[in-house]
């Protein structure tokens, strides 16, 4: 399992070490990442659809997802509220008046679920059992992590400046610690070893990563649970951010997890103003690095 952890982490750091100066190549990279994400999610669904006893396990999976989402939601928001009390943020006096299309954003948030559903239906009703699904998913994930590393390195962000952003760093650390504490609380609820519970709690909203990594290590059922937990986090964040960001910006930015630097960033900017942007990017960037590192480390104990 330690070898598997190294395989997860190595492509990310290798990509981060490479500088890409060609803007056209950066654009191609963006579309390649998007295509790979949906391909990986479809493979996750395919594994679920071909799982023995799928229908009999759906009830248990629903309870596990509900436990993960609820415990993480309460723990993350409580810890981020305390951080806000300790390190309050000052927002723009007049945040942007133009609001993003929330209907469009929610539909975009449902697209990952659709990709998994299509894969699951194809696996259950149409396709014969395919022996290479796990291997293809693993190699696709490694390629995705390499591309993500390239994107992070070439996003015009200075790692030193991101680490010096005290608000962003503090939010990322608080979310990480409260998530890991939640993982320990979930051990008796989920009836799994401590390292598996901590790995499940370390997705931070990165559903394409957590679903495949957890599924590869613990089986397709737990991969589905990890995916649903993280995609539901993203959907809840889209609903919460406009409501609480003016009063509790750390809570709004932090709960989005790794998505604060990409998917939920437009909502953060429009609802909280420009002052939130560097904080959100710093927090999301750090959590994007921490998530595969922590999952790899915890799963290596298995």
TrEMBL record:
UniProt keyword annotation of NAD present: no
Keywords annotated in UniProt: Membrane, Transmembrane, Transmembrane helix
Source organism per UniProt: Marinobacter oulmenensis
Lineage: Bacteria, Pseudomonadati, Pseudomonadota, Gammaproteobacteria, Pseudomonadales
Protein name: Uncharacterized membrane protein YbjE (DUF340 family)
Gene Ontology MF term list: L-lysine efflux transmembrane transporter activity
Keyword Transport found: no
Transmembrane residue ranges: 6-21, 28-49, 61-84, 105-127, 139-157, 169-192, 204-228, 235-257, 277-301
Cellular component, GO, one term: plasma membrane
